[in-house]
Amino acid sequence: MLKNENTQGVSVSGENRQMIVWLGALAAGAVLGLLGIEWLNDVMGFVATVYTRLFQLLAVPTIAFALTTTMARFGEQKETGRILRHTVTYTLLTTFAAALLGMVLYIAVSPGNMTHALIEKGMADVPDSVGTGSYMDYFMSVIPNNIIRPLLDGNVLAVLLLSFAVGIALAKMPQSERKTAVMNVLLGFQDLLYMLIHALIWTLPVGIVAFSAQLTAQMSAGVVMNSIGRYVAVILAGNLLQFFVVLPLFLLARGLNPLRVLRAMLPAVMMALFTKSSAATLPVTMASAENRLKASPRVARFVLPICTTINMNGCAAFVLVTSLFVMQNGGTALTLPVMLMWVFIAVIAAVGNAGVPMGCYFLTFSLMSGMGAPVGIMGIILPIYTIMDMIETAENVWSDSCVCAMTNHDLKTTDTAEAQSATAGD
Fold first, then answer.
1. Which residue in 270, 292, 316, 416 could disulfide with 99, CB within 3.0 to 4.6 Å?
2. What's the CA gap between 159 and 147, in Å, rounded?
3. Cα(256)–Cα(409) distance, rounded to whole angstroms?
4. Per-residue model confidence as pLDDT tens digits over 330-377
5. Does the pTM of the predicted model rise above 0.85?
6. Distance CA 24, CA 44 (A)
């Protein structure tokens, strides 16, 4: 017993040292960014890009192997179905809460209309790549027609579908030497990926310095300091309230300490803030959940890849508030039934959104352009979208962490109750 307590003490001490190093790296990066030295900014931008690409490299195969091996054991582990039900339930509850909060804040703050001339000017700032394709084309891209292409393109939703299909097929296969061989190969690759993830996380302070310096330099240059008033206030207030109030209330309702969960998952939240991609952050999220939050690997490796693709609290709020703002400027009467209908549309759209930078922006543009709304507003939003995307992604990963923590807690509670019931029966 004493040995376990000492081991736990060493672990906690190690986590504290790691957190101090990360916070020190964050501060050092901010100082470097404020210096305004052009060549130094270029170096920091290069290092930040390298780290983002490395995490993206590991993220997609991590999703593929984690989901495939979990679903392949579907018949062997009775709790897989329970994990999936809890994950989907908490995802929908938190996403609806985010969208409803956005609607309430939009009504309370009531952003005004913009001038026609300003909207027309904004059209020039819309990226050329946004205007191509429809929302239906977006969904069709999720259906793969090549087993390798989704992995090469980093199409997270397509990889998710393939992983589910392969995993279920393996689960249905009769037990044989060939099936065992396939499972051993998949599990071996999964273990190899986790070794690479741990190695990358060990060097993460260097990446944090670069990310922090890059962000500070951008803010100093005024890239993300412009705003359009009340609309931005609604977006940011909704994200912050969801992060610091709504999601902690979900945790408290399940008997979990929000501060403990946040402390354990802080590396993932920080990584999401800088990379603006929940998919790229997935390796850090899974490592934090297993090593710091002490979530069961069977829960973390199943819940988090799914949440990365369907649990988009920040995206739901952005899609709703931005759609209402654009439609209002186009002359649509925003009655309560219309707003409630768009709450459902925003949730469904967010669930199908890919966890990549600017994913919500492209998604909202597709919805609005299909309605003939004044999409020039999207060009006006673009200069300040960076800061909104950062906060939304951090909120998404924090929500993923909460869903994982609540699901893990529920399964532990159920297992304990079943064990006590079995003991009483004996």
1. 316
2. 9
3. 8
4. 888 899 999 999 999 899 888 766 555 677 887 788 778 767 788 788
5. no
6. 16
